[in-house]
Write a structure and sequence with these properties.
The chain has 323 residues and is of the alpha/beta class. The chain has two domains: 21-52 and 205-288, no CATH class; 59-202 and 290-322, Rossmann fold (3-Layer(aba) Sandwich). It contains nine helices and 15 strands. It has helices at 16-28, 43-52, 59-79, 94-102, 116-129, 174-188, 204-207, 217-233, 292-301, and strands at residues 2-3, 6-7, 84-88, 108-113, 135-139, 148-149, 160-164, 193-199, 242-249, 254-261, 265-269, 272-276, 281-288, 306-311, 317-322. It has an eight-stranded mixed sheet with strand order 1-5-4-3-7-8-15-14, sandwiched between helices. A three-stranded antiparallel sheet has the order 9-10-13, with helices on one face. A two-stranded antiparallel ribbon has the order 2-6. Strand 9 (242-249) and strand 10 form a beta hairpin. The chain is globular.
Length: 323
């Protein structure tokens, strides 16, 4: 197992803690308060999200896994032989494991994640499941531009297939999605491929409970962000004074998660005061839902083309191969 060092495009960067503080102060200072969805994924957030993926209301993980299992051979045939699988943001190794098991003579596996433990865990699982496969991991932040990665020499010349599962692309707005796909195309090379999971539009009776489950796990996941700000940035959020809220944004075709203030109050972060009116929210995450036509438009706007796609019988989820 290897740990890779990423060469960043800028010569120097502020420490990660300072970057987080700057992002939080900027987001809470806006007229419509918002925080980056990446802040949801500290160790507790990752553990809670793992629980979410097993909830009866949360269909995307089960749906994508079943899709990969059902069409694994067809996907592998489209990918071809001897390719390095590079997974962006692996919440776990489960999906990549199914894909690697179907691929024809994969040349290696690279896990990139904002949480180093998640990336390391995926590579450890890969080493256990595929002991002969060269695997490596590196810290990766979607908001930065870490596309210059020094791969281990034996796999560096091999063709690359990116894997962006979990409908994570739905957390990005159109400009962010185009930026990510454009950078991924440059990183993966002229013969690169990118397999992306897209959650498709469906009835709100199915969509909304997936983000507001009966057991309240998603609420704990969302509100854990405030716990993190209290712990890491000296915040004084009273968790009893805030609540998890879910909305459907029809204009964006997105489920939005918010944290709502239940009363008028002043909250401090790193000594900076922020006023909240009763009912005011912090927007923490959007999950955009796609149609096949919007997927094609997104691919074309970022220099890719749709080479193949697979969807389940209910039309809930789509795996799309870009090339």
């Amino acid at each position: 197992m290897f740990h890779l060092t990423i060469r960043r495009e800028t010569a120097t960067r502020e420490p990660r803690q300072v970057t987080m503080l700057e992002d939080v102060l900027e987001g809470l200072g806006q007229a419509r308060k918002r925080l980056s969805a990446s802040l949801l994924y500290d160790d507790e957030g990752i553990a809670l999200f793992d629980r979410i993926t097993r909830l009866p209301e949360y269909y995307p993980t089960r749906c994508e896994l079943q899709l990969l299992e059902s069409f694994g051979q067809s996907i592998a045939d489209q990918l071809g032989e001897g390719r390095v699988l590079i997974e962006f943001g692996p919440a776990s190794f489960a999906k990549a494991g199914v894909l690697l098991g179907a691929m024809h003579h994969p040349a290696g596996y690279l896990a990139l994640d904002i949480n180093a433990e998640a990336a390391r865990g995926s590579v450890e699982a890969a080493a256990h499941a595929f002991p002969q496969l060269l695997s490596a991991w590196a810290h990766w932040d979607l908001r930065q531009r870490p596309w210059q990665v020094r791969l281990p020499a034996p796999i560096a010349p091999q063709p690359r297939t990116g894997f962006f599962p979990g409908s994570t692309i739905g957390n990005l707005d159109m400009a962010e999605a185009i930026s990510f796909l454009t950078l991924a195309r440059d990183f993966l090379g002229s013969d690169g491929q990118l397999l992306v999971g897209f959650d498709l539009e469906k009835d709100l009776d199915l969509l909304l409970p997936a983000y507001d489950d009966a057991q309240g796990v998603t609420a704990r996941f969302n509100l854990n962000l405030l716990t993190r700000l209290n712990r890491e940035l000296g915040g004084d959020f009273d968790l009893q004074a805030f609540a998890h809220r879910v909305r459907w944004n029809a204009a964006e075709a997105a489920v939005e998660m918010h944290i709502e203030s239940l009363r008028s109050q002043t909250v401090h972060v790193a000594g900076r005061p922020f006023q909240f009116a009763r009912g005011e929210t912090i927007h923490t995450e959007s999950s955009r839902k796609y149609t096949p036509s919007r997927i094609r438009a997104l691919a074309e706007a970022s220099g890719w083309r749709v080479e193949a796609s697979w969807t389940d019988a209910r039309g809930w989820f789509m795996e799309v191969l870009l090339g």
